[in-house]
Design goal:
Blueprint (H helix, E strand, L loop, with lengths): L7 H4 L6 H11 L4 H10 L1 H24 L9 H23 L5 H20 L3 H7 L2 H12 L2 H25 L4 H35 L11 H18 L2 E9 L2 H8 L1 H19 L3 E5 L4 E8 L1 H9 L1 H5 L10 E8 L5 H4 L3 H18 L5 E5 L1
Parallel strand pairs: 4-5
Antiparallel strand pairs: 1-3, 1-4, 2-3
Helix pairs in contact: 3-4, 4-5, 6-8, 6-9, 7-9, 8-9, 8-10, 9-10, 12-13
Length: 379
């Protein structure tokens, strides 16, 4: 499970002004392929989306096959072979959408590229008039690109779709048997359908997604805030319950942080908070989730093996302290550990809340004992 961090969070304070600035901000916005893949594979809607994509590929295969018998369809051995090859590959990809999990970045990008090139290839063996009208299929691909790819790939798709459409229109114009005004209107309608919806939809979705994600993230560190931790903890806990591993809730507090702000100023204090967040992220990455729950307080929840959980918890203090730092700091760590046979897994509906409260009390014990130490307990 990945830790929630969003580089855009800090950039939002420095948004460029004007329409062009908004376009640049949209174009440069990072796309979280990992989060998208995890969401699609864990949410029931993911299976529905994969089924719809598979059905679309099957439908395109059937229509392509029927075009072999239609007026203005593929004619000759080469075009027929190309059409049948595309029909077969589409059916294989449809099966993969149904049988395999939702793919990551390489998978979705590859599918979009295949779809664009496949549509262009399939249209190239049709009569030019049918090919031009068939370019509306790029709008279907545009819907996929809009939801699952970055702004840069949206632009690549739109440029390819526009170039293909204009190439067919120019070929028709050169053929000389179509009224130029009619051709202009047809081409304009196709381009509007292909290009307008993906751009406006992607801008809206990326803005909405950024705002939604910022509501669950700490603006200084990019870690989850209390709201973001709440839902993420429940999901992680269910994972720990299913696999039967050990789990731990860990509370980390920077010792004597007020003196850091008093002596060095709040800017340096913020730098310390961010540095601790980055090191804590590296330490627990791959095992669970991490959030900032207060000014200098963090909460982590991990699921790992019984042999590893103690080492992970006790290694936090060393991972966060470096004497060579401009402002060296120490931390107090409290942890509540649940082994696989803990009764809290089955006898307490508020396992997360109980573990969090116990971990918090352990952290205060560590701080009361002088700080720079780890206190753990089994629950």
């Amino acid at each position: 499970m990945s830790l929630a961090r969003d580089p855009l969070t800090r950039r939002r304070k420095q948004q460029p002004a004007g329409v062009w600035g908004a376009v640049v901000l949209w174009f440069m916005q990072p796309h979280d392929y990992e989060w998208m893949t995890e969401f699609q594979n864990s949410h029931p809607s993911g299976r529905i989306i994969r089924t719809i994509l598979a059905a679309s590929m099957i439908n395109i295969s059937i229509m392509s096959f029927l075009s072999l018998y239609a007026e203005g369809g593929p004619a000759g051995a080469g075009p027929t072979a190309l059409t049948l090859t595309l029909c077969t590959s589409n059916l294989i990809i449809a099966a993969l959408w149904v049988l395999r999990p939702f793919p990551g970045r390489i998978g979705v990008v590859s599918f979009a590229i295949y779809s664009d090139i496949g549509v262009a290839a399939a249209l190239s063996v049709l009569d030019l008039t049918n090919a031009l009208l068939g370019c509306v299929l790029f709008a279907v691909i545009g819907a996929f690109v809009t939801f699952f790819l970055s702004p840069r790939w949206v632009i690549v798709h739109l440029l390819f779709a526009a170039a293909t459409t204009l190439a067919f229109a120019f070929a028709l114009l050169m053929r000389g048997d179509v009224d130029p005004i009619t051709l202009l209107v047809q081409t304009n309608v196709v381009l509007l359908g292909v290009m307008s919806v993906p751009v406006t939809s992607h801008v809206f979705l990326t803005t909405l997604s950024a705002d939604a994600r910022s509501s669950v993230l700490d603006p200084l560190t990019g870690l989850l805030n209390r709201r973001g931790l709440s839902s993420a903890l429940e999901e992680l806990w269910e994972q720990g319950r299913r696999v039967g591993q050990c789990a731990a809730v860990i509370v980390v507090d920077i010792d004597n942080f007020k003196s850091v702000n008093d002596i060095y100023g709040h800017d340096e204090g913020d730098a310390v908070i961010c540095r601790v967040a980055e090191r804590l992220t590296s330490h627990v990455a791959g095992y669970g989730i991490l959030g900032r729950t207060g000014g200098e307080e963090y909460l982590a929840a991990v699921v790992t093996s019984r042999l590893h959980v103690d080492a992970l918890v006790h290694g936090i203090r060393r991972a966060l302290h470096d004497e060579n730092d401009a402002i060296p700091v120490t931390v107090s760590v409290g942890a509540a550990i649940l082994y696989a046979d803990s009764q809290l897994w089955t006898h307490n509906s508020d396992t997360v809340g109980t573990a969090s409260r116990v971990a918090d009390s352990m952290m205060y014990e560590a701080k009361a004992a002088g700080g720079n130490r780890v206190v753990t307990t089994l629950i």
